[in-house]
Write a structure and sequence with these properties.
The complex is a heterodimer of chains A (about 325) and B (about 350).
Chain A: H1 3-6, H2 26-56, H3 73-79, H4 82-114, H5 120-132, H6 135-145, H7 152-159, H8 175-203, H9 207-215, H10 220-248, H11 252-257, H12 269-279, H13 283-291, H14 293-313
Chain B: E1 4-13, E2 16-25, E3 31-35, H1 42-50, E4 57-62, E5 65-66, E6 77-80, H2 92-103, H3 110-121, H4 136-148, E7 154-158, H5 166-183, E8 186-191, H6 194-200, E9 203-208, E10 211-216, H7 218-223, H8 228-233, E11 240-244, E12 247-251, E13 257-258, E14 268-280, E15 284-292, E16 297-305, E17 315-323, E18 328-331, E19 337-338
Parallel strand pairs in B: 3-8, 3-9, 6-7, 7-8
Antiparallel strand pairs in B: 1-2, 1-4, 4-5, 9-10, 11-12, 12-18, 13-17, 14-15, 14-17, 15-16, 18-19
Helix pairs in contact in B: 2-3, 2-4, 3-4
The chains are: A mainly alpha (about 325), B alpha+beta (about 350).
């Protein structure tokens, strides 16, 4: 019965113009769909990147915007500046410590938030809130929380008797405390995203496998370390790499809270590049400083892509 | 080895009643199959025995000890999930050794025990592979080996064959049966496939709507169904039901034969069979059609083995018969089995 329909004429009837099927061809459709993304990347990433590289090898300033290539002299000047080395070290300290804290805390939070309890949606909402706050606003609120004279944290500590009542910790004015403070605020800011990523990762772990572990005799800890965490690891890696890339290149928190101070104790590459290049007007040095982030980021991106591919295979 | 028993077991998820008062007791070393359509509560029942669900009411006993308050790991059971639930990041060896590690068996003893389980299932060569490098049948064996290695009192199997292709399923069914006979551990096996149930079970518990409809040997279930649900769920094609005088008369398709194919003079019920279609499957002919019933025609199916060569023509005028001893009667209202009545 259906045999007659099955042998309907093959191929397109000659009367239909070929152009109608243009988008059905993968070799046409693919490039068409990619085009907007490519244009976007070239205009907003590729072009500035090339410009930054050119600037780094020139003596361009805000006052003299003509481009003269001067070879390595700018880079050499940057490398001779001790603040650059401080910033480089601070960047790693800031990134690694904050992300280490984020990983541990977001894992615990994700576990807590995926168990059932009353008012879970409200707790979830509260924890996700920092992510929805514009970071400049959030950082300004923290600026008050950590203010040298009006810090409410000082009041609470004084009231609890941990510090003398009426005395001040001066969170942002002492070198180690300042670094600790910006790290804490960065953790507060990055935690929600990592938690959400991990919660999604946990939802993807087959329930069967966890139940199998229970039947197989595993208690809570063995299930956690033997089954759940290993299965969660690829997602954790993605969350960490996201966090590292964000934190490594970010200066918002530092800019608002400490502007790199005291005595460059919280200066990172991104803020130093900004102060040098934009506020100081030395575009060439700013670009040269920023360029030092490039190799690290290339390495990280390669790692992200490799992880993504491995997750696909598994 | 132990006996599994549930008493008055109920489970509801909010408003939905999944298991609605089940009493069931296995024999020592028995292969007990829970058979039923999807959503009949058979998997929920199994999960309550495993301890993965808490019963809303009733008791679970393993080895005559109540285990309601014990977590799964304390119940001395082993379970094989439909998906096999292998740990994807561990090798087959590590998968099988996981219950040993969880029981605190020293590492030196793992190789011997894993080797023993692997040799029973013929997977010694696969132990270094990860689950994704294994075929469906191999995964199933690894899952069984993992269940075996704990030497549990009870095996719980949740549709372990349904992820295999049809050909593999037949061999795997055979192996499962031999395997259970060799180790002799009490096994509760959940399936919706009646062929698996008939082939594997010492006894079958047919479930529907959260309740047990009938418990019995495959023969009892097939030949003496307690109600119309069991009669039509078990058997392919199902039992024919024809309404006569307020009762439902049931007969299996293979007992429904052309008059010319049976010895004359036997005690037979005769039907006028309106044939609409004949399907020749080689070993059998399926004859589809209808017999006149009280108000309207009832669709029935006859299955004629290839040894029955009597011609069957599409259309009216075929006389088919059923031996009276092959007729089963069910109440027209409740569908429960009733006494035979003359027709």
């Amino acid at each position: 019965m259906t045999a007659a329909e099955g042998t309907a004429p093959r191929g397109s009837p000659p009367s239909v113009p070929k152009r109608r099927y243009l988008l059905d061809r993968e070799r046409v459709l693919g490039p068409v769909l990619l085009l907007p993304a490519v244009v976007f990347l070239v205009a907003l990433v590729g072009f500035p990147l090339v410009l930054a590289i050119l600037y780094a090898f020139s003596d361009i300033t805000v006052g003299d915007p003509a481009l003269h290539l001067t070879g390595l002299s700018t880079v050499r000047a940057v490398l001779h500046d001790p603040v650059f080395w401080t910033s480089l070290r601070n960047t790693f300290v800031f990134t690694l410590i904050s992300q280490a804290l984020v990983v541990v805390m977001s894992t615990i939070l994700a576990f807590a938030l995926t168990t059932r309890f009353r008012g879970r949606w409200f707790v979830r909402f509260l924890i996700l809130l920092p992510w929805t706050t514009p970071i400049a606003l959030g950082a300004i609120a923290w600026l008050w929380m950590l203010h040298s004279i009006f810090s409410p944290i000082d009041w609470v500590l004084g009231w609890l008797g941990i510090i003398h009542r009426g005395s001040h910790v001066v969170w942002l004015g002492r070198t180690h405390l300042a670094m600790g403070s910006v790290i804490a605020v960065q953790v507060w800011r990055m935690l929600p995203l990592a938690t959400v990523i991990l919660m999604a990762g946990m939802a993807a772990i087959p329930k069967d496998v966890e139940e199998q572990a229970e039947v197989d005799g595993a208690g809570f800890w063995r299930k956690l370390f033997g089954v759940t965490l290993p299965l969660l690891l690829p997602i954790v890696a993605v969350a960490v790499l996201f966090g590292i890339v964000f934190t490594f290149t970010d200066m918002t928190v530092i800019f608002v809270l400490t502007r790199g101070g005291p005595q460059n104790a919280t200066q990172v590459l991104a803020s130093w590049a900004f102060f040098r290049g934009i506020e100081g007007g030395d575009l060439a040095q700013g670009a040269a400083v920023a360029l030092f982030m490039f190799p690290v980021l290339v390495g990280l991106v390669a790692l992200v892509l490799r992880l993504a591919r491995r997750a696909e295979v598994a | 080895m132990a006996v599994v028993e549930v008493r008055g077991l109920r489970k509801h998820f909010d408003d939905v009643v999944a298991v609605d008062g089940v009493d069931l007791r296995s024999e020592e070393g028995e292969y007990l199959v829970l058979l039923g359509p999807s959503g009949c509560g058979k998997t929920t029942l199994l999960r309550m025995i495993a301890g993965l669900e808490h019963p809303s009411e009733g008791k679970v006993l393993i080895g005559d000890q109540p285990v309601n308050d014990l977590p799964p790991r304390a119940r001395k059971i082993a379970m094989v999930f439909q998906s096999y639930a292998l740990y994807p990041h561990k090798t087959a060896f590590r998968n099988i050794a996981f219950p040993l590690a969880a029981q605190g068996v020293p590492k030196e003893e793992w190789a011997a025990k894993v080797g023993w389980a692997a040799s029973l299932l013929g997977i010694e060569d696969l132990l270094q592979r990860k689950p994704r490098q294994l075929s469906g049948g191999e995964r199933q064996r690894v899952a069984l080996a993992r269940a075996l290695v704990r030497e549990p009192d009870v095996f719980l199997l949740d549709e372990p064959l349904s992820n295999l292709d049809a050909k593999l399923r037949a061999t795997a069914r055979d192996e499962l049966k031999l395997f259970q006979q060799r180790i002799g551990t009490t096994t509760v096996y959940v399936t919706h496939d009646q062929i698996e149930a008939m082939g594997l079970g010492d006894r079958i518990a047919v479930m529907n709507g959260g309740r047990i409809q009938q418990v019995g040997t495959p023969q009892e279930i097939y030949h003496d169904p307690h109600n119309t649900f069991v009669a039509t769920f078990v058997g392919s094609p199902p039992m024919n039901l024809v309404r006569r005088d307020g009762v439902l008369m049931g007969f299996r398709p293979e007992t429904f034969l052309p008059q010319s194919a049976v010895e004359p003079g036997g005690d037979h019920a005769t039907f006028e069979f309106k044939v609409t279609r004949v399907e020749n499957l080689g070993s059998d002919r399926y004859v589809y059609g209808a017999v006149p019933a009280l108000d309207e025609d009832t669709k029935v199916i006859a299955r004629l083995p290839s040894t029955v060569t009597a011609p069957v023509e599409v259309g009216t005028g075929n006389q088919f018969v059923v031996a009276r001893s092959d007729l089963r009667f069910f109440d027209g209202q409740s569908g429960e089995r009733t006494k035979p009545e003359g027709i």
